Amino acid sequence: MRLGVFTPLLSTLPLEGALEKLSTLGIRTVELGTGNYPGDAHCKLSMLEDEAALAKFQKTLADKEFTISALSCHGNGLHPDKEQAKVARETSRRTILLAEKLGVSTIVDFAGCPGSTVGSKYPNWVTCPWPPEYLDILKWQWDQVVTPYWKEHAKFATDHGVKIAIEMHPGFVAYSPETMLRLRSIAGPSVGCNYDPSHMFWQGIDPIEAIRVLGDAIFHVHAKDTQMYPANLPRTGVLDTKPYTDERNRGWIFRTCGFGHGAEWWKEFVSTLRMFGYDGVLSIEHEDSLLSPDEGLNKAVEFLNSVVLKETPGAAWWV
To answer: Boundaries of each Xylose isomerase-like TIM barrel domain copy (predicted)?
Structure first.
């Protein structure tokens, strides 16, 4: 297992500058955004039509001895606004095509969330079974929107030799191990998950036990933590809609690895991942509102280097 970095936290730097900075930290693997929510600061889909730009991009990575763990295009391809859905879907399809050209096996995306019915303006994330019309909405979403889109999109990915790692995130139809596996049962084995333990923590899901549920459906992993605030939870609950920057009053916030849970927890997390067949990249994602991107990156690398299970020929050990 090795460390990587999801590079939007370095979006103010050009690709070369971001790689140089990461190399000083001993990082040689990156996850790159191609559009939608992560943006495309370091990886442009226009390279599909520009062979010279593609060659320059590949040379930059090769010269600095970097590999790509995944291309990420987190978006809402099920958005009820047709134009928003079109942009998200096209970005995801083109990300698959670029991954194929680059020899990258995995892209990361969201499952998306439809509206309540045809003609809706905004997505509707259903979180309870009553009153009964909520279950009617949920059934319509899965039967009429989720299933046809993901069957088609998963086939497109399969045809191009690429896997889609869905990030389980509240606000979208696949947000828990159960809903993720439901989507996988519909779409097939080319769809699995980008496993971010921070999203499990605040839903009250034990991220380590959830690995046992997901098993070989884990394609890629984000390294990000969550800190719960018991003093606020009796008032807010976990479905807290206050801004992430209102840290004093929220029930929880995202944290840099090690600031929500300590080394013993993270050792067990990476050990369980490996036990269930994942021995790939832990891609550091920075969304800690109490630390700057530079602080968060440095702290996360330092912390995770102390707990990640590394390999050497014929042996493996904790460092």
So the answer is: 20-306
Given a cut of 70, whether residue 318 has pLDDT beyond it is no
Above 80 in pLDDT, residue 317?
Answer: no
Predicted TM-score (pTM) above 0.90: yes
Cα–Cα dist 202/252, whole Å: 7
Q: How confident is the model at residue 315 (pLDDT cuts 50, 70, 90)?
A: very low
Q: Show Cβ contacts of residue 193 under 8 Å, excluding neighbours closer than 6 positions.
A: 165, 166, 167, 168, 174, 180, 214, 217, 218, 219, 220
Say whether 22 sits in a helix, a strand or coil: helix
Per the structure block, which two tokens stand in for 208? 């380590």
Amino acid identity, residue 245? Answer: T
Kindly report the CATH number assigned to the domain that includes residue 226.
Answer: 3.20.20.150
Full domain range(s) for residue 273:
2-318
**Domain count of the chain?**
1
